[in-house]
Specification:
By secondary structure, the protein is α/β, with parallel strands linked by helices. The chain is built from 11 helices and 13 strands. The protein has one domain: UDP-N-acetylmuramoyl-L-alanine:D-glutamate ligase (3-Layer(aba) Sandwich), CATH 3.40.1190.20.
């Protein structure tokens, strides 16, 4: 951990502008996740009872950075947190992580935070609040930091201006591979994340386009192999369409690859997708593995992640993932 940017209140000024980029740079939120263990996930107009409440740290950008670091990659995070109590706790958490947080800045506003309802089967619903993440903008130093990385990751939850700036970077020579995760359905992104026309641009610009079942249905009207084929027809280089315990379908110039999920006891599904993406970046984007080998490794990383509570509770090291695979 190299220390946070606490310099100016301006988004364009930083005391850490000269920091060199690590292997993987992620853009996205660093949050406090308040998890309620509920009797059931309530239907509309329904209710539930929480017999346990726990607070852990999360955020897609931070989760992918942490998972990348656990796999042995140097990793850095670009994010904005608020100057409130939540921001203070997130900053303290970042201080203890083995990632570069020099491009995380504290600014006036409410820190992004999440309320997560989780049932006995590990299923969950997530509500996000706070304005710090959607007020993030990229500075010249951020852009240089991204261009100096070996791989860059963005979640669709980043604000649209951040995506437009990053897309402009993809048009330059000698840019690193960019990984885009359509993390939520279009309705959930409205007013805070990437717009549909921006997502359209990422289909052709990203080296790897990742999307889950719910988001794929929202954006494409289909999922699974059909979604992979649709994205490939639109110019996507590499695609991963994930479906939790039903596995994933990966697509590249070699064709479509069905990868099953591993059967494990699920404690909490939160963060599994982030661990999966970090593993794909490690093995498919940077490691040069073929889709099947990379997909199997990613499925193992996700499986280990769900065996413990919290978005990062089961995040695994490379040795742990390899040992898990060696037993199967």
């Amino acid at each position: 951990m190299a220390g946070r940017d606490a310099g100016s209140s301006s988004e364009g000024t930083s005391v850490a502008d000269s920091s060199a980029a690590p292997d993987v740079v992620t853009l996205g939120a660093a949050t406090v996740d308040r998890t309620y263990h509920v009797s059931n996930i309530p239907e509309p107009d329904g209710g539930a009872y929480a017999d346990e409440v726990a607070e852990v740290f999360g955020g897609v950008g931070a989760n992918v950075a942490v998972a990348s670091a656990r796999l042995g990659r140097s990793a850095g995070l670009i994010a904005r947190i608020g100057d409130d109590d939540v921001g203070t706790r997130v900053a303290a958490d970042l201080d203890g992580l083995s990632i570069d947080d020099t491009r995380v800045r504290r600014r006036p506003g409410t820190s992004t935070h999440c309320v997560i309802l989780r049932d006995d089967d590990g299923k969950r619903s997530i509500v996000t609040a706070g304005d710090s993440a959607k007020r993030l903008r990229l500075t010249a130093a951020d852009r240089a930091y991204l261009l100096d990385a070996d791989a860059a990751f963005l979640t669709a939850y980043n604000p649209d201006p951040v995506h437009r700036t990053a897309l402009d970077l993809t048009e330059q020579a000698d840019t690193p591979p960019f990984v885009f995760d359509l993390s939520g359905p279009l309705a959930e992104l409205a007013g805070r994340g990437a717009r549909e026309e921006t997502i359209d641009r990422w289909v052709g610009a990203a080296d790897l386009f990742v999307v889950g079942t719910v988001a794929a249905e929202s954006y494409l009207g289909c999922t699974g192999r059909e979604a992979v084929e649709e994205l490939r027809s639109r110019g996507a280089r590499r695609v991963a369409v994930t479906a939790g315990s039903d596995g994933a379908v990966l697509g590249d110039e070699e064709g479509l690859h069905d990868l099953p999920a591993f059967d494990v006891a699920v404690a909490d599904e939160t963060g599994a997708g982030d661990a999966y993406v970090a593993a794909l970046i490690d093995r498919w984007v940077l490691g040069g593995d073929d889709a099947r080998e990379a997909g199997r490794f990613a499925a193992a990383a996700a499986a280990l992640n769900v065996t413990a509570a919290g978005a990062r509770g089961g995040v695994a090291t490379r040795k742990e993932v390899e040992a898990f695979l060696a037993d199967r």
